[in-house]
Amino acid sequence: MNAESSRWVTGPSMESAAGGARKTGLSCAECRRYVIPSKLKEFPCQSCKRRGCANICPEGTLSATKGNKVLMAHTQRLSGQVKSMKARIRELEEALHESQNPNHGGSKPPSLVQAPSQSQERVRLPELRTIFDEEVRDVSESIGSLSIDVDGRAKYHGESLGSECFQQLFPAQPSVPTDPKYLGLPFEMIDLCNAYPFGLRDSQYTKYLFLPFLPPRERALYLIELYYQNVAWMFDPIIRDDFMANILTPLYGHTGSPNINNVHSHRLSVFFILLASGVVYEHSPSSGVIAEQYHALSRAALSLDPIYQDATCATVQALFMTVRYIYQTDCTNNESRWLLMGVVARVAQLIGLQRDSEGWGLGHDETQRRRILFWEIYTCDTWTSIANGRPPALSINHTDCWFPEDLDPVTKPSGAVEMGWHVWKFRYSASCLGISVQHVFHARVPSYSALLELDLKIRKFNLPSHLQSPMEASEAERAWSPEAPRAMQQYCALYDKEANLLYIHRSWFAQAIRESPDNPLQHKYAPSVLAVYRSACRLISGLKGLYQVHPHPTSRTWFFWSSVFAACILLGSIVADSPRCTLASNALQELDQAMTLYEQGSRPCRPPATMLVLQNLRERATDAFNATQRDARQTSRSSFHYSDSEEVGGRKSVTTSLSPVSPASSAFSLDRLSELSDDFARQLDPSIVHYYRALADPGFVLPATGELELDNIPPAQPSAQYDATSPEDLSTPSPFFDPSLQVAMMNQSTHPTQSIAGPSTSVPQQQPLSYQQPQHPYFFETYEPEIISSKSGETKLTRWEQWKP
Question: Whole-angstrom Cα distance, residue 683 to residue 456?
């Protein structure tokens, strides 16, 4: 019988007739059959192991058939199944360990009750792991809020929805008409406005339609000064020199007579929207109507040439400045801002702003114009996405754009030069805000250690001294700038860091209050409770100081007061849901002071319903705190109330009031924090751990508004993400932002031993930074919503009824 007639493998070959032994150093039988040169120095040979037939080496052979490919594919599939089952075993071990945590109440983790069909499918199709990561945990519960009317029109607000976007708080109609047909404009202008923002495909109109609407040169210069004094301090997509040289001078020349021949229609749109933004700050009864007229002219000018054919930097500038104009004039028009910001991002990508243009030889001025414009758009898009609870249109992973030159550096008395506001804003957005967006919108549950590492990164990000806010009277070395724009930048720098901390911590804050209402400082997420409390107090204290120095511009900046409103809600939830917490007494005092400030300072811009919301919240918080004091001798639960932490966290449940905190229980919370500090001391700077631990001491006076001295303290756990070359190291500023540093940081895989049953305070060695969405809803969310049908037929998800009178 011929050995090669077998289906797969032959038996041992016959020795030679002479009976001599087989020579050593020859190829194996399969390698000789397949004509593969190899030396049989080991068993099995490398060639057979590489081809997946090591079990037949050295004497066996495979039959010459296409079945070899099937066998190899079968072997690879079995290998994948083994890897998949090993990974599942590790997950179950971690889940079992996590289920023994007392904070889980002995409940079985969701990962242990996975449907058999899912597990079998994953083993049966291991290649799907390349699409769906095998370490994907349960999808976050913080799915956001949704409203749907009878016709199917839907509106979604996600996990981080801010109060400035909650439309039920705003009046139904704006005070100034915005429809172009009510602004006294000719029919041609209305036709062009209706084509905004994409423009007319075949326009029969010319730029000469706009000639009668150009103001005298002196009037234009006055409105331009108002714009750069009151608007451009925050976002400045077109610097003054650029505007004067490329728009104003070609329009008016040296004689002052308007001439639009040398100006593209999209630059004309920039001119009109800049005038509209400046008129808003003119003290005149008709300023609102005039501003809307200029706004309509800007929209009409942009529509003369379609943006998909004639897009330039001026196109992006006009669109972006329109978004900012709507933001400052109409707080009710959130959806229009959101959609238009998406158009801005797409047109910016259309002209390649996300890629640095130095290699294209565009010239210094054009390169700087593009860099400034991109980073202004990226910063605004990122904050807009967080406020709306929706993912951004631009990603830090997709850009290699350098930072622009610092056009406004500040020289200290010592001679040292510090970066200006705009350059600092760009660097902070790239280094901290971009990572926070990844954290907020990721669908997976993050590790708590990653959150604390991100917290430390934000706190340690360098802030120039001229942008630091005086938070306490004792800080004599700091003061609010006498110039209103500079002072507003000081508060914006404070807002950027503290509001960022609020957004990333408040879901964990809500869980701590919900699970440990007696004293959330005993909870393993106590750092989030303290971080939210401290940031809320600093936002309130900072705006109070700014309002005392510059009351008029502060009172007109409505998004400043939105942050105070959100801080009041968080402080009130501490008192109402955890009245026995060590922080409750101070939180109630801060709430009273914040409401006084809010009522006094926000009159020109606040929605009327917000004050009613805060008044009802304060009443409930005061009642809960007073009841705690009256029932100080009781040791059991006596009543229950609707939980504000459920409202902050987006869940609906009932939390009972607990016995008051005695000195003994306060001492216990100090001990408890000491125990917790052992868990997260490895993740936090020692000064932060000391700060958190000391807060539980009843005799400790909370420095709620004081700065943590972190600038000169190295991290407790050195990490490769925070080396000297990272963008947040500003001791030696570099003009180049290298996104690969952030990409490497954000794309690292999760540690295989990390828990999948929820956030944990345990920190594996060499734990990479994880940017995954918490499984706990954010403030202003509805996740188990009541469906309320209005008379108009619209079905809405609401949460404000509990605070309405």
Answer: 9
